[in-house]
């Protein structure tokens, strides 16, 4: 997968983000996307090949591997990165829609036409809601994937030895996972960075709501003075 496409698209959201959003985007690129592309894919590339069981029974190793690894870490992370970055693309699309709408009105009315958006990228009206919902969705996606990883891989760790007694295995067989310590380190690193991203998204959402409430209060005070 060409992850540079996501980098190019998401880099445009920086100018529409708050400081918290820029920190979130930097974490996604540096500590999640780059780690995934540079290191994590290679760490999990030998998952099935080096999953050894002490039996020669045909099909036993495949069945045991599928039982203990129902979904690969690396594919779950890829899906998580795709879903968690989609809301940022929606923000860019909303801004592009505003700019196109303003351009059409300008062409129809000429220079004397009233500007419908003084600044299409300013978070007001529908764009404010789009941005806020994108933050909630990003935090929700990360939280759901943390739960999925926890259910599939208890405590986010991989054991060195697993015992399997599924058919067609003739009896209880011992299976050994390749490089469990290295994989556990990467898994915990991804879990920690995901938790930090969730906190940043929630803090940014609280900041937006607090700022809007403050503006509404100031506007109300100004009207009451008049």
From TrEMBL:
Domain Connexin N-terminal as annotated: residue spans: 42-75
The answer, when asked if Ligase is one of the entry's keywords, is no
Could you tell me which InterPro entries the record lists for this protein? Connexin (IPR000500), Connexin_CCC (IPR019570), Connexin_CS (IPR017990), Connexin_N (IPR013092), Connexin_N_sf (IPR038359)
One GO BP on record is:
cell-cell signaling
**Where does the chain cross the membrane?**
20-39, 76-97, 128-150, 185-209
Per UniProt, what is one Pfam family of this protein?
Answer: Connexin
Q: Chief subcellular site?
A: other
Q: Where in the cell is it found?
A: Cell junction, Gap junction; Cell membrane
**Gene Ontology CC terms:** connexin complex
The annotated subunit structure for this chain is: A connexon is composed of a hexamer of connexins.
| Biological role stated in the UniProt entry | One gap junction consists of a cluster of closely packed pairs of transmembrane channels, the connexons, through which materials of low MW diffuse from one cell to a neighboring cell.
Tell me the protein's name: Gap junction protein
The species is: Tachuris rubrigastra
Which taxonomic lineage does the organism of this UniProt entry have? Eukaryota, Metazoa, Chordata, Craniata, Vertebrata
Give me the gene this protein comes from.
Gjb5
């Amino acid at each position: 997968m060409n992850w540079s496409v996501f980098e190019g698209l998401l880099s445009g959201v920086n100018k529409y983000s708050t400081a918290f959003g820029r920190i979130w985007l930097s974490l996604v690129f540096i500590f999640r996307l780059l780690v995934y592309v540079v290191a994590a894919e290679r760490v999990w590339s030998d998952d099935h090949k080096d999953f050894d069981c002490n039996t020669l029974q045909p099909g036993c190793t495949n069945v045991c591997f599928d039982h203990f690894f129902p979904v690969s870490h690396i594919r779950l992370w890829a899906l998580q990165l795709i879903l968690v970055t989609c809301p940022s693309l929606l923000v860019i699309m909303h801004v592009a829609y505003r700019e196109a709408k303003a351009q059409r009105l300008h062409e129809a009315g000429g220079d004397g036409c009233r500007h419908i958006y003084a600044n299409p990228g300013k978070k007001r009206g529908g764009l404010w809601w789009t941005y806020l919902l994108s933050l909630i969705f990003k935090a929700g996606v990360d939280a759901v994937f943390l739960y999925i990883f926890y259910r599939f891989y208890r405590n986010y760790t991989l054991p060195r030895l697993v015992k399997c007694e599924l058919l067609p295995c003739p009896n209880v067989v011992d299976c050994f996972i390749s490089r469990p310590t290295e994989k556990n380190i990467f898994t915990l690193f991804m879990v920690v960075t995901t938790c930090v991203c969730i906190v940043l998204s929630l803090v940014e959402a609280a900041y937006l709501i607090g700022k809007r409430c403050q503006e509404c209060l100031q506007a109300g005070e100004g009207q009451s003075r008049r």
